[in-house]
Design a protein that fits this description.
The protein is an alpha/beta fold and 370 residues long. It folds into 2 domains: 3-183, Glycogen Phosphorylase B (Rossmann fold, 3-Layer(aba) Sandwich); 200-355, Rossmann fold, CATH 3.40.50.2000. Helices cover 41% and strands 18% of the residues. It has helices spanning 17-30, 77-82, 85-92, 94-97, 129-135, 140-156, 165-174, 213-233, 248-251, 268-273, 287-296, 314-317, 325-336, 339-355, 358-369, and strands spanning 3-7, 35-40, 58-62, 102-106, 121-125, 157-162, 180-182, 200-207, 238-242, 258-262, 274-279, 301-304, 319-321. Strands 3-2-1-4-5-6-7 form a 7-stranded parallel β-sheet, with helices on both faces. The protein has a 6-stranded parallel β-sheet with strand order 10-9-8-11-12-13, sandwiched between helices. The longest helix has 21 residues, at 213-233. It is globular.
Length: 370
């Protein structure tokens, strides 16, 4: 077995949970079977290959290019952003594609580059793009393009892999004949461990890429609706905002007690130090990876039920709330009595580190690809 992995961007640096998931999962798979990774270049600064990428047999990075004029009006915006004619030409060469037994398609945006007659496609869904476009109220014509792409993907992919059972169920509601599997977020159990030192009870953490619109909306709501009341009752508190992206509309009105950290190559020190991770996101997807990493370190989590999708024992491990006022009240309850949250997260840590290890998940993925 030799796997070809296609990514819309190189999965490094780990600017968001999606890139971390892709890199860790594929590099763990590459310890089991040969993996060749092809990605479309990121227009940002050049970054050297991370150590994890050494596991791949070969890495190819292709330049971006516009979609052909006849195709562009039919394509969703991310398809236009991530298109590469050079990648499409490379895939069309039989000498390249004949070597592979299966194709791992990381998100749907490169589907148009994959020629007919390619190896069997496994479609890896970080989230459901149809639901995301609807929840973010994208224009109707953009939602139609995303829906069309999902139908195309369903016709061409032999297997679909989702990060939660909830996403799998929603997808099967539209495509009941699809072969759909679940592969939750993972963690490196050798690195993400419970700290020996006590947590700082006056330090909360918001962790997520601000390039991702649901994170920006959640943080704006936290600043507007919850943080003033929380900080008024606990003026010694510090809220660390960790993640890539600028979000100038939020930085301009930074509330008291908020520290902008920005992108960090390693989130571990922040997860091991905070009293709790806040996940007020009303849309599932990006939050899952950081929540599994937080649980592996024993960090308490206060989250909306939607943000916690994909964690099979979320009701036992997390402090779950509804969106809106209930979320702020949940934070205040944790601050008044943090011990139950500490106890829940410590119970979760060992289970998560055992069952959600990247090696275990790569073994499942190998079975799906076979």
């Amino acid at each position: 077995m030799h796997i070809l992995a296609l990514c819309a961007v190189p999965p490094w640096p780990a600017l968001d949970g999606g890139r971390r998931r892709t890199l860790e999962l594929l590099s763990a798979l590459a310890q089991r079977v040969p993996v060749t990774l092809c990605a479309v270049e990121d227009p940002g600064p050049h970054h050297d290959l991370p150590v994890a990428a050494n596991a791949f047999q070969t890495v190819h990075i292709f330049p971006r290019s516009p979609l052909p004029p006849g195709v562009a009006p039919l394509a969703a915006r991310p398809e236009r952003w991530f298109h590469s004619q050079a990648l499409k030409t490379w895939l069309a060469n039989p000498d390249n594609s004949v070597r592979f037994s299966a194709l791992f398609l990381d998100e749907p945006w490169l589907l148009r580059t994959v020629p007919r007659g390619s190896p069997p496609i496994l479609a890896h869904h970080h989230k459901l793009e149809v639901e995301l476009a609807r929840d973010l109220q994208h224009p109707w014509h953009e939602r139609l393009r995303v829906e069309r792409l999902e139908r195309m993907l369903t016709l061409r992919a032999s297997t679909h892999v989702f990060a939660s059972q909830e996403d799998r169920t929603r997808f099967l509601g539209r495509h009941p004949k699809a072969r759909a599997r679940v592969l939750p977020a993972g963690v490196d159990p050798r690195r993400f461990v419970v700290p020996e030192a006590d947590r700082d009870r006056n330090r909360l953490l918001f962790f997520g890429s601000l390039n991702y619109e649901p994170n920006r909306r959640a943080l704006a709501e936290l600043f507007r609706d919850h943080w003033p009341r929380i900080y008024q009752q606990h003026p010694q508190l510090v809220l660390e905002v960790v993640g890539a992206g600028e979000a100038p509309e939020l930085r301009g009105e930074k509330p008291n007690g908020v520290e902008w950290v920005g992108y960090v190559p390693d989130p571990l020190p922040y997860l091991q130090h905070a009293s709790a991770l806040l996940a007020p996101i009303p849309i599932a997807g990006g939050a899952r990876q950081k929540m599994v990493e937080a649980l592996a370190t024993g960090c308490p989590i206060i989250a909306t039920e939607r943000a916690a999708e994909g964690l099979p024992q979320a009701k036992d491990w997390l402090q779950l709330t509804q969106p809106g006022e209930a979320f702020g009240q949940g934070v205040l309850e944790h601050l008044a009595n943090p011990e139950p949250g500490f106890e829940r997260s410590l119970r979760a840590a060992e289970w998560v580190r055992t069952h959600f290890s990247w090696d275990a998940l790569a073994g499942q993925l190998e079975g799906f690809l076979g």
